[in-house]
From TrEMBL:
<feature type="compositionally biased region" description="Polar residues">
    <location>
        <begin position="153"/>
        <end position="175"/>
    </location>
</feature>
<protein>
    <recommendedName>
        <fullName>Yeast cell wall synthesis Kre9/Knh1-like N-terminal domain-containing protein</fullName>
    </recommendedName>
</protein>
<feature type="domain" description="Yeast cell wall synthesis Kre9/Knh1-like N-terminal">
    <location>
        <begin position="24"/>
        <end position="118"/>
    </location>
</feature>
<keyword id="KW-0732">Signal</keyword>
<feature type="region of interest" description="Disordered">
    <location>
        <begin position="119"/>
        <end position="206"/>
    </location>
</feature>
<dbReference type="InterPro" id="IPR052982">
    <property type="entry name" value="SRP1/TIP1-like"/>
</dbReference>
<dbReference type="Pfam" id="PF10342">
    <property type="entry name" value="Kre9_KNH"/>
</dbReference>
<feature type="signal peptide">
    <location>
        <begin position="1"/>
        <end position="16"/>
    </location>
</feature>
<feature type="compositionally biased region" description="Basic and acidic residues">
    <location>
        <begin position="177"/>
        <end position="186"/>
    </location>
</feature>
<feature type="compositionally biased region" description="Polar residues">
    <location>
        <begin position="119"/>
        <end position="135"/>
    </location>
</feature>
<dbReference type="InterPro" id="IPR018466">
    <property type="entry name" value="Kre9/Knh1-like_N"/>
</dbReference>
<feature type="compositionally biased region" description="Polar residues">
    <location>
        <begin position="187"/>
        <end position="205"/>
    </location>
</feature>
Amino acid sequence: MFTFFVLILLAPLVAGDEFTPTAPGPGDVFKAGENCTISWMPSSPGGWTNVSVSLMSGSNDDMKLVTTVAHGLDGSNPSFSPFNWTCPEVEPYSAIYFYQFTNGNDTTDPTWTTRFTIASSSGASEPPEHSSQPNGDAIPWGAGSLRGDRNDTSNTMSKETSSTDQGNQSQTVASSRMDKQRKTASTDRQATPTVSLPSASTVSSPPVFLPAENAVSKAHHLNRVSLLFITFCMYILSYYCPL
Ligand SMILES: *[C@@H]1O[C@H](CO)[C@@H](O)[C@H](O)[C@H]1NC(C)=O
Ligand SMILES: *[C@@H]1O[C@H](CO)[C@@H](O)[C@H](O)[C@H]1NC(C)=O
Ligand SMILES: *[C@@H]1O[C@H](CO)[C@@H](O)[C@H](O)[C@H]1NC(C)=O
Ligand SMILES: *[C@@H]1O[C@H](CO)[C@@H](O)[C@H](O)[C@H]1NC(C)=O
Ligand SMILES: *[C@@H]1O[C@H](CO)[C@@H](O)[C@H](O)[C@H]1NC(C)=O
Ligand SMILES: *[C@@H]1O[C@H](CO)[C@@H](O)[C@H](O)[C@H]1NC(C)=O
């Protein structure tokens, strides 16, 4: 009986063909230039295997692309959620942004998060320009864009400030890719047997203290070096130690 109820409760979670965004939710605030975290419940295997993520704004009737966040994500692989990217500098800072997810070439069946706030790096934001949708629904909205997308003057301004606010598009796309690679790499690392060798504890562990940017490649390199070192030590030990 108990098992029966558990199965009933779990059924919608397990049997999801659909890819289901779970965060950000209403009231969430992210600062431009900082981590923006997106979460979802993965689809079943073979479901949403080629997911594109877009940052959007606009009304429900007229959603507008702000910028592309990621594409080609395997939305059936649970290890990709939560997904981090760097929120761009936008105009205005307001609770008018949301994510749209599509799978492969199928643009007819998108799914969305609710609207959330992208605030300035100091946390400032303004209320949405419109308090209700064109059809009257009391869902505030507004039109946003990347800071600098509107005209040449503001573009120049954003270039001047981008060294401090890290808000331009190439950086954010690159950083979302980087986060993804970092994530993939770290799962790879966990699966690498070299890490779980007992003798690894005799080797000092510098990767922890490396700057995040290069941690992955250096850690890989170090893994290789320490594997060689460990193999060498074992070889030497096998001569002198009858164990
Ligand atoms: C953002 O996430 C990265 C890993 O993806 C982490 O190294 C970094 O410390 C985070 N930054 C902040 C401000 O939380
Ligand atoms: C994503 O960013 C959040 C907030 O900065 C951080 O706590 C988390 O560790 C990051 N996750 C990954 C996978 O980088
Ligand atoms: C993945 O989706 C993109 C559109 O977002 C499409 O151009 C690409 O061909 C798809 N890849 C595969 C392997 O179907
Ligand atoms: C998606 O479209 C691209 C061309 O736009 C095509 O090469 C690709 O095979 C398509 N993918 C699927 C799964 O139909
Ligand atoms: C550029 O945009 C700013 C505000 O976004 C506006 O004040 C300015 O007049 C615009 N300049 C031109 C040339 O359109
Ligand atoms: C974005 O940032 C990168 C790296 O700092 C820089 O090379 C590029 O010129 C910037 N692009 C714009 C449009 O500001």
